[in-house]
């Protein structure tokens, strides 16, 4: 067991080195980079589609989509007019910094304002790997249940922002937004939760505003 | 990379040895063991609650519940009258055979007919680890989307049965059961899909019948 832990630590520290190099590169390019984490089917790709629809004319958006298999997510995002490239992990349960570095070679960083890294649908493993992003956005959808923060604390500890998606389904479930937010704040008292329904395009304004502010800040930041 | 792969193979082959020992033990005890795999919030614990409610008087049911943190799942199951023990993985993304072997020491195997191993909510990593079970049951819930089989093929390749849960939410989503089943059968043409709503207790009869048949078969099986 000790040996396994040591190996894991080595892999993580190597990952942290690559992530730090990526972070430097993104700072030089004044490119805002967001890491999207969630369970399968929480709505990461739909969030991206609606964000591209709303902001694609004023911001240059690009996506790196991670999936075990299939190019489906990248295709969906491309249809909305954003630049997208896929990482097929071939079974690996998370993206790491090296995979992102390889995918970056297929993108022109000088021509973009925001890069979304859509991680593999998995609320556990991706939380352990830094990919050089500025902010980690954790999505949870209403049907997953309001008990998820307590059960998956690692993802919430890593989060800089929480998106609570599919609030249009609240009437058909026993989900309590109040219980959810109380649970979130037990882990991170300062964490913002944006409630929305991406498919219904409801409640997304705060997210758009947050994104525009962060882009402006990154563009204006001293190098 | 080659070194990492070799290490992973070693860990897996050690796990397979322990899993084989568990399988022998379960055969000796004529105990039916099911491994439940799903994303967070697909309804594994609710499936167990309703199964205990329906079959708890005729079958002796026990649960090993895996979670990163909290005893919530085991508590919910105990309230329904089943024996339950929790494995808090402390961050690990899956259960392995050794963790199950340790948890078994807290259970009396002679006094049970079915042992459910409720894996960590994660559709990726648990699919790689044999825990000595007779059958792997993969749960998917309607709000996760009908595209999940193609995106998470490993779990479906491992599955012996698929439970499609939360069918009461179909009217409020763009989920197509037909597309879902077509997607499943591209991976495994022979795989049964039981459609149900555990919270509404709808469509669970086929699952109960399946379970009773498998218990009878295990009890009657030659050693």
Q: How would you sum up this structure, described in words?
A:
The structure is a homodimer of 223-residue chains. Chain A is of the alpha/beta class. Chain A has a single domain, classed as P-loop containing nucleotide triphosphate hydrolases (Rossmann fold, 3-Layer(aba) Sandwich), CATH 3.40.50.300. Chain A is 41% helix and 17% strand. The first copy, chain A, has helices at residues 2-28, 44-55, 72-79, 97-104, 148-151, 153-158, 177-187, 205-220; strands at residues 32-37, 61-67, 83-88, 114-118, 135-141, 161-165, 193-195. Chain A has a seven-stranded parallel sheet, with helices on both faces. In chain A, strand 6, helix 7 (177-187) and strand 7 form a beta-alpha-beta unit. Chain A is globular and about 45 Å long. Chain A starts with a helix and ends with a helix. Chains A and B meet through helix 1 and helix 5 of A and helix 1 and helix 5 of B.
Most extensive chain interface and residues per partner: A-B, 39 and 39 residues
Report the helical percentage of chain A: 40-55%
CATH uppermost class of chain A: Alpha Beta
Could you report the average pLDDT of chain A, rounded to the nearest whole number?
Answer: 94
| Oligomer category | homodimer
Which value, in Å, is the CA radius of gyration of chain A?
17 Å
- Secondary-structure-derived class of chain A: alpha/beta
- Look at the structure and name the CATH superfamily of chain A: P-loop containing nucleotide triphosphate hydrolases
Sheet with the most strands, sense and barrel status of chain A: 7 strands, parallel
Q: Calculate the terminal CA-CA distance of chain A, rounded to whole Å.
A: 43 Å
Extract low-pLDDT stretches of chain A: none
Give the count of helical stretches of chain A.
8
